Automatic annotation (TrEMBL):
Pathway(s) served: Carbohydrate biosynthesis; gluconeogenesis
Keyword Lyase: yes
Protein name (Swiss-Prot/TrEMBL): L-serine ammonia-lyase
Keywords attached to this entry: 4Fe-4S, Gluconeogenesis, Iron, Iron-sulfur, Lyase, Metal-binding
Lineage of the organism: Bacteria, Pseudomonadati, Bacteroidota, Bacteroidia, Bacteroidales
Keyword Cell division found: no
SUPFAM superfamilies (UniProt xref): Serine metabolism enzymes domain
Catalytic activity entry: L-serine = pyruvate + NH4(+)
Residue intervals of the Serine dehydratase beta chain domain: 3-74
GO molecular function: 4 iron, 4 sulfur cluster binding; L-serine ammonia-lyase activity; metal ion binding
Listed GO biological process terms: gluconeogenesis
Domain called Serine dehydratase-like alpha subunit: residue spans: 154-227
Amino acid sequence: MKSIKELYRIGTGPSSSHTMGPRKAAEMFLERHPEAASFKVTLYGSLAATGRGHMTDVAINDTLQPCAPVEIDWQPKIFLPFHPNGMTFKAVDAEGKETEGWTVYSVGGGALAEDNDSPSIESPEVYEMNQMTDILDWCERTGKSYWEYVKECENSDIWDYLAEVWTTMREAIARGLEAEGVLPGPLNLRRKAAAYYIRATGYKQSLQSRGLVFAYALAVCEENASGAKSSQLPLVAHAA
């Protein structure tokens, strides 16, 4: 099993595969070509078909444009063989010559892959046990708790990372409860978290906690939909 960092990711919405993945790919390509005079990015298949609604272009432009101009080519009818969420980044020098092309795939949950020969650009397996029953047996056998198993497998920075996840989520909830107006997109959906929160605070004690939990969840969903930074469960987000 991979690191918990692969489960709880911090990134921008609204989609782990269409926003978080492309943003990460753009960051990686920019690290390789900070000297580029411009960039060309081609989005294929699903990324191109629904990318505008998921702000794929915004994620890429926000990353690359501070360094150099970006040209995005949308190719929704072309599906690369490895995965439907394919994209190609090209760096262009001052003379207009392409210095490198890199094809990468956003395979879900914010994770990236290159091809069958290099299927993952992520952290290695860090947990020896992959079944919950095995972990439960280990806890009973050793007398240790879940967090102690995590401590044995993860790097020491895991606790700082989880604290950052918690802080990010709390900030997303706070922003979502304060924000009003309409969410981005052509549907003109109004934000409802703030209204639900006010309504829930007036509920009887037996119902209030349930109402507040719903308001908090809605606040994060609306922040995610608006493209804001939050902590996401990308496997769940991708399945949705």
